[in-house]
Design brief:
Layout (H helix, E strand, L loop, with lengths): L2 H20 L5 E2 H10 L6 H13 L3 E8 L2 E9 L1 H25 L3
Antiparallel strand pairs: 1-3, 2-3
């Protein structure tokens, strides 16, 4: 069994939730999202995040706007829609239940 594959699948399973959580406080562009994830030790690459952002936008959970940058080309800032905020709220509840259940199971002696 390949432990790295299992670890990658676990990270993928929570990536959508983490991206939505990053955007709950303020809009951000992709590099900011990636930096936040990397600072939290959730290692992901741009090639994983860009398609996920597009899918979340197409699902109506995110919107975006272009903003001029003083240090290069315009940046695409992503933000939560009202549907995205509701979806994140539901995911938070599910995460709490799941996390509690896993902690109970994994802490058993």
């Amino acid at each position: 069994m390949n432990i790295e594959n299992t670890k990658a699948q676990m990270r993928k399973g929570v990536l959508e939730f983490c991206i939505l959580s990053v955007l709950k406080e303020k809009d951000a562009y992709t590099s900011e999202i990636l930096d936040t994830l990397k600072n939290a030790k959730l290692l992901v690459v741009e090639g994983t995040v860009y398609p996920l952002l597009t899918r979340l936008k197409n699902d109506g959970l995110l919107n975006y706007r272009w903003e001029e940058s003083t240090s290069g080309p315009p940046r695409k800032y992503y933000g939560l829609t009202e549907l995205g905020k509701q979806f994140l709220k539901e995911l938070n509840g599910t995460w709490t239940e799941l996390s509690d259940a896993v902690n109970i199971i994994t802490s058993q002696k």
